[in-house]
Amino acid sequence: MIEANDLTKRFGRCTAVDGLSFQVQPGRVTGFLGPNGAGKSTTMRMMLGLDRPTSGTVSIDGVPYQRLSDPLRTVGALLDARAVHPRRTALNHLRILARSNGIPARRVREVIELTGLSSVAHRQARTFSLGMSQRLGIAAALLGDPAILVLDEPVNGLDPEGVLWIRKLMRDLATQGRTVFVSSHLMSEVALSVDHLIIIGRGRLLADTSMTAFIDQQSDAGVQVRTPEPQRLHDVLAGAGITVTACADGSLQVAAEAERIGVLAAAHAVTVHEVRRNTASLEEAFMRLTADTVVYRAEQSRGTHR
Amino acid sequence: MTSNTPRAVFAAEWTKMWSIRSTSLTLLLTLVLSTGVSTLIGFSYRDSLEDVINFDSLFVGLYGVTLGQLALVVFGVLIVGSEYSSGSIRASLAAVPQRGLFFSGKILAGTLVALVCSMCTVIVTFISAQAAFGPHGTTLSRDDVPIALVGAVVYLTLICGFSMGVATIVRSSAISLGVLLPLLFLGSQGLGNIPALKPVLQYLPDQAGMELMRIASPPDDTSVGPDYGPGIALVILSAWTAAALIGGYLVLRRRDA
Question: Which ranges of the sequence are coiled-coil (chain B) (predicted)?
């Protein structure tokens, strides 16, 4: 378990992390979300003892990271995939990390195969694409077979196949009872793979909630329904007191749980082609939540004055 | 169970050092530069020594070491500085979070290699240069030769330790070299011979090192070289190295990675 207690980090006058307290529990994937500059990476660096908190603490199973006697067997971390000496081969990079923690050489081979790097293990890191660097970083994180994983934007730069792979990997690791803590600045990236959410903005905690609770809170998220009989379904749902909006593409936007819609449609024998929770609105909900805290915002009005 | 042992950390730093090509390159360059320059000097003096009084082939024959040291300085700077330029310092410290342990492992590995490289360099330089001097050369049997060679080895090794310390303080290869090369080369080779500056500059690490090698002062000549003897020189040089290493450790312990 990872536990942050009133964790604060200031860089000069800028407060990057502001009184964060949360727990990351084992056996589930915890998403760590926030816009760029929210303080996610700084928080993770403090977890790993790289940055010293200005005040507050963060501990791994009750102990500060610096005091772990088997750091790589306790926590596996992917922080910056590019932080490998450019002239060092992937194999040597992993060998060095393994050696420093007394991890047997055979485990290096294992993680290389596990992350699909076998064919490039002898190539220098500078020749790696971002996706390959990311895989090398994940290989390094898995090296010590740790019970806790801290992954900073792991899907960054991965191809779709790689994204699916990392999602499945995180799920599997959590199922094995490990603690998986994964950061992202995109809700859509983690919505499918996390059980729990910790959302921060400008270094402050905005939400600490299970994924299902977060979805339920967004009551206006709604459900999109496609049906060949839109008028009938509209009447059935409206008759049950549910707000229904017709969309331009002929589908219906329904403010109710998918289960309830299904039951009503079946009871009235209305044919339904698709009942889909509006996931795009999860991203919107996340953006609404963090809107006031966005540090880097694109200027939107530019170009209209031309 | 503790797997993050000093032995494991040393082994990791050892592998780390040899897994990049610049290590063998800079070490080889140390040997080649030192031997090459000294041997060339030997050959060029060989036939024109008849008129020179007070000539000491030991002094001149080790001169190449002052050039070879620059490559060894680059070696010391790169094994530390590359951690910062590549960002791998974060992976390294995540693997070895106790910074004192990490630092001592790295410095020990680097110093050990520097010691072996210095021994080879100094012996090869001496033999090759003295052979080049021909009839004017000297041999190991001369009384002050062994101590001068030991002095040269100690000098090179300490200067490498000094470089690693400086690189840890400034956390950059480029800045380290920008500080060290002028300090070790221009300072003493050029400005060091200006009498007014000598009282200060004679305490710079390379001046102390030259005295340690006894090449700064030919016998019976006190006008060249520092005002102190080899014993004090060793103390001064050790103090420089210790200060740089302690400074490096303090910076590493305090700063965010």
Answer: none
Number of domains in chain A: 2
Look up the domain containing A75 and give its range: 2-216
Residues of chain A neighbouring B89 (CB-CB closer than 8 A):
83
Indicate the pLDDT class of residue A247, thresholds 50, 70 and 90: confident
CA distance A58 to A21: 9
Last residue of a domain, one of A216, A234, A252: A216
Q: Do the domain assignments include residue A288?
A: no
Question: β-strand A75-78 against A148-152: which pairing, if any?
Answer: parallel
* pTM check: above 0.90: no
Taking residue A136's Cβ as centre, other Cβ atoms within 10 Å add up to 26
The per-residue pLDDT for range A19-64, each reduced to its tens digit, is: 999 999 999 999 999 988 899 999 999 999 999 999 999 999 999 9
A-chain CB neighbours of B13 within 8 Å are: 100
Amino acid at the residue A99: R
Q: What is the DSSP letter of A292?
A: G
Cα dihedral A177→A179→A185→A188 (10° resolution): 10
Identify whether residues A59 and A92 lie together within a single domain. Answer: yes
Q: Is residue A290 part of a domain?
A: no
B201 located within any domain: yes
CB contact under 8 A, A102 and B8: yes
| B1 located within any domain | no
Residue B109: domain span = 6-254
- Judge: A84–B91 Cβ closer than 8 Å, yes or no: yes
Residues 78-97, chain B, touching A (beta carbon < 8 A): 82-83, 86-97
The answer on A136 and A202 residing in a single domain is yes
Query: What integer pLDDT is reported at residue A304 of this predicted model?
Result: 41
* CB of A86 less than 8 A from some CB of B: yes
